């Protein structure tokens, strides 16, 4: 399969900007070291990153055989070695058995419940150049940042649909979407929702503490890929380029008082088995250091974006995705698993019966367009989307569909203390 | 039979005929119906965090009239959070009963005994009828008694595991040494295990997953009811001796003593 071509030049970029963009893309020496922290970025003394990356480096998925997979499935508790076998190509013929086991683990820990939530993008300004992302600073899209009144209006529209859990997202621009702005959005969200999560640029421990006090209790940060060499080639500019600062974000969030943290690799950016291994190990090592925390995983695949509709998930089909998700469930039976609207309705229905515990509904990855999408009337302009979604079901439709699958949709199972 | 007729579980001054309590782990309307109708439950646990919703499927609406609600503090990571959740439950109109659950471990969901003692003391002072979920440790159980608990609730095995009486020896010690009702909570996976715990002298059984994951929910609920009654009767009757190795001498060795 041909590799994705991520690099797109907008006709609206000036000559100097274009020159700078090409320089970053073509000349590695023009880029900062991905290990160099920006001033003000907190450095944690934590052994987790080294442990995860070393174990990922050492993972050779071709070493595992059907015997290892059978042994892994026979073990009551899945060890790290067992997990590596379940992620390997040797486990592909055992997919149905893995799904059966995963379903038992899910049922044991979560019953037949599935939590519904919705994401709310409040700004799409971004200072990073991540070549695969629709929000990247060189992509020619309609930029928008909601003001307080607009945020509240969007929240009212969403809350009226019955949703009780919200995930607030911004593009990664500290200039445009500073901490106070996000804090205000959290306080507004507490008025309308029971449960407030954040998916924003990584911040320091004290900043997480502030956002927690504003009402947020869950923080999700996607590492995208755990392969440093590949990370460096995909995240060419901005704070996101600093790989270790991003890696330690969940640990800082927990130290800042957050109840739970979410993790993800974006499958398709690098060797997906290694990325899936590293994501789960990231959770495993942190769980040992912070045993009281709640952990969740998601497993997105690459999707087309505005101005580049050719992006594909690079050979990671639904079977491979299902294998990764089942392996996650068997290895980390206590962790929540979220399945994104990047996937189709039929995949999400099926995977919710096996291992997913959380599913988004009424999704828009654009800015300020919930009313248009929910009620059909258009008002003012909206900001462009981060990526194209594949499942646009409303909360009502999702509620009915999950019930139809024999699952119990839950809108809230949380209390802010 | 007279003995059975008067035999009630007393908690916080209230008397219950049923010794089956429904836990809160996996909730559904069918489960609550089966627990009340087929298992005869008079007490149903309620996770405050799950009731914290506007959803049309609010579990508070599932609870039949006449059933005593036992709100729990699941989600609390320390005593202070448990106290806050208990107060929230009271404000929601759930009454004075509270089951303390404090977990500082998201993997096994094992209770934190130290924090549980602290929370028990604080909540008992506020007039709650406190039922603390605990790891079966005799010293802690004694502290819970002093702190004002209305019962102690030791775990039989990791929650949701259906593994039965993994902590049997320690639960027996609590039953023997503690003057409060000992309610066995978590891990009971089959009616036979519930029966065994009752024979040992447990005051009641709390279960959820064993019913929720059964093939036929109402039938399993009925099986639990009968097993618990059978175990209770056996306990009240006094178990006969069990010969461990070979025959026992029928003439006592001390039969020669005449004073």
TrEMBL record, chain A:
InterPro entries: Aldolase_TIM, BATS_dom, rSAM, rSAM_sf, ThiH, ThiH/NoCL/HydG-like. Keywords: 4Fe-4S, Iron, Iron-sulfur, Metal-binding, S-adenosyl-L-methionine. GO terms for biological process: thiamine biosynthetic process. GO terms for molecular function: 4 iron, 4 sulfur cluster binding; catalytic activity; iron ion binding. Its cofactor is [4Fe-4S] cluster. Residues 298-409 form the Biotin and thiamin synthesis-associated domain. Pfam families: BATS (PF06968), Radical_SAM (PF04055). This is 2-iminoacetate synthase. It comes from Selenomonas ruminantium.
TrEMBL record, chain B:
The keyword Methyltransferase does not apply. The keyword Plastid does not apply. Gene3D superfamilies: Aldolase class I. It is an enzyme of class 2 (transferase). It comes from the Bacteria. Residues 11-251 form the Thiazole synthase ThiG domain. It catalyses: [ThiS sulfur-carrier protein]-C-terminal-Gly-aminoethanethioate + 2-iminoacetate + 1-deoxy-D-xylulose 5-phosphate = [ThiS sulfur-carrier protein]-C-terminal Gly-Gly + 2-[(2R,5Z)-2-carboxy-4-methylthiazol-5(2H)-ylidene]ethyl phosphate + 2 H2O + H(+). Its EC number is 2.8.1.10. Catalyzes the rearrangement of 1-deoxy-D-xylulose 5-phosphate (DXP) to produce the thiazole phosphate moiety of thiamine. Sulfur is provided by the thiocarboxylate moiety of the carrier protein ThiS. In vitro, sulfur can be provided by H(2)S. This is thiazole synthase.
């Amino acid at each position: 399969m041909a590799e994705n071509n991520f690099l797109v030049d907008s006709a609206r970029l000036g000559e100097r900007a274009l020159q700078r963009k090409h320089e970053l893309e073509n000349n590695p020496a023009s880029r900062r070291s991905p290990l160099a922290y920006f001033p003000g970025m907190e450095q944690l003394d934590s052994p987790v990153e080294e442990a995860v990356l070393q174990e990922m480096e050492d993972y050779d998925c071709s070493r595992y055989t059907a015997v290892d997979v059978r042994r892994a499935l026979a073990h009551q508790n899945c060890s790290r070695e067992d997990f590596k076998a379940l992620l390997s190509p040797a486990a592909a013929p055992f997919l149905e058995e893995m799904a059966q086991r995963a379903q038992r683990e899910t049922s044991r820990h979560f019953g037949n419940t599935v939590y519904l939530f919705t994401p709310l993008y409040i700004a799409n300004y971004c200072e990073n150049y991540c070549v695969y992302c629709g929000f990247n600073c060189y992509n020619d899209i309609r930029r928008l940042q909601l003001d307080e009144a607009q945020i509240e209006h969007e929240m009212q529209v969403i809350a009226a649909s019955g949703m009780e859990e919200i995930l607030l997202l911004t593009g990664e621009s500290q200039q445009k979407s500073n901490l106070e702005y996000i804090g205000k959005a959290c306080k507004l969200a507490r008025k309308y929702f029971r449960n407030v999560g954040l998916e924003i640029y990584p911040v320091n421990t004290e900043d997480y503490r502030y956002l927690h006090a504003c009402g947020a209790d869950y923080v999700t940060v996607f590492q995208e890929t755990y392969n440093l060499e590949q990370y460096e080639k995909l995240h060419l500019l901005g704070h996101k380029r600093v790989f270790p600062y991003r890696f330690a974000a969940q640990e800082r969030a927990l130290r800042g008082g957050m109840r739970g943290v979410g993790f993800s690799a974006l499958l398709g950016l690098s060797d997906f088995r290694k990325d899936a291994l590293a994501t789960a190990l990231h959770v495993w090592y942190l769980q040992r250091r912070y045993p009281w925390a709640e952990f969740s995983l998601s497993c997105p695949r690459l999707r087309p974006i505005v101005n580049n509709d050719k992006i594909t998930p690079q050979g990671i089909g639904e079977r491979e995705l299902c294998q990764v998700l089942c392996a996650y469930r068997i290895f980390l039976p206590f962790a929540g698993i979220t399945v994104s609207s990047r996937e189709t309705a039929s995949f999400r229905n099926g995977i919710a019966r096996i291992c997913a515990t959380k599913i988004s509904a009424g999704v828009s990855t654009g800015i300020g367009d919930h009313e248009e999408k929910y009620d059909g009337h258009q008002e003012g302009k909206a900001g462009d989307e981060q990526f194209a979604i594949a499942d646009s079901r409303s909360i009502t439709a999702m509620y009915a569909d999950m019930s139809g699958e024999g699952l119990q949709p839950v809108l809230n199972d949380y209390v802010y203390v | 039979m007279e003995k059975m007729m008067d035999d009630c579980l007393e908690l916080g001054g209230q008397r219950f005929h049923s010794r089956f309590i429904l836990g809160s782990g996996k909730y559904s309307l069918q489960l609550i119906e089966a627990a009340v109708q087929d298992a005869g439950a008079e007490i149903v646990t309620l996770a405050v965090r799950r009731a914290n919703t506007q959803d049309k499927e609010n579990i508070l609406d599932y609870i039949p009239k006449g059933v005593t609600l036992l709100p729990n503090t699941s989600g609390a990571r320390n005593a202070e959070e448990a106290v806050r959740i208990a107060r929230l439950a009271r404000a929601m109109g759930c009454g004075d009963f509270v089951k303390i659950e404090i977990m500082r471990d998201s993997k096994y969901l094992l209770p934190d005994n130290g924090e549980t003692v602290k929370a028990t003391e604080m909540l008992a002072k506020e007039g709650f009828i406190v039922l603390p979920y605990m790891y079966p440790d005799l010293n802690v159980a004694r502290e819970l008694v002093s702190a004002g608990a209305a019962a102690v609730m030791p775990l039989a095995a990791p929650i949701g595991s259906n593994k039965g009486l993994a902590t049997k020896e320690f639960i027996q010690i609590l039953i023997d040494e503690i003057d409060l009702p000992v309610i066995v909570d978590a891990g009971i996976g089959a009616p036979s295990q519930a029966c065994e715990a009752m024979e040992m002298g447990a005051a009641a059984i709390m279960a959820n997953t064993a019913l929720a994951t059964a093939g036929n929910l109402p039938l399993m609920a009925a099986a639990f009811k009968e097993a618990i009654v059978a175990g209770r009767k056996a306990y009240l009757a006094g178990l006969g001796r069990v010969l461990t190795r070979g025959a026992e001498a029928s003439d006592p060795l001390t039969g020669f003593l005449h004073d």
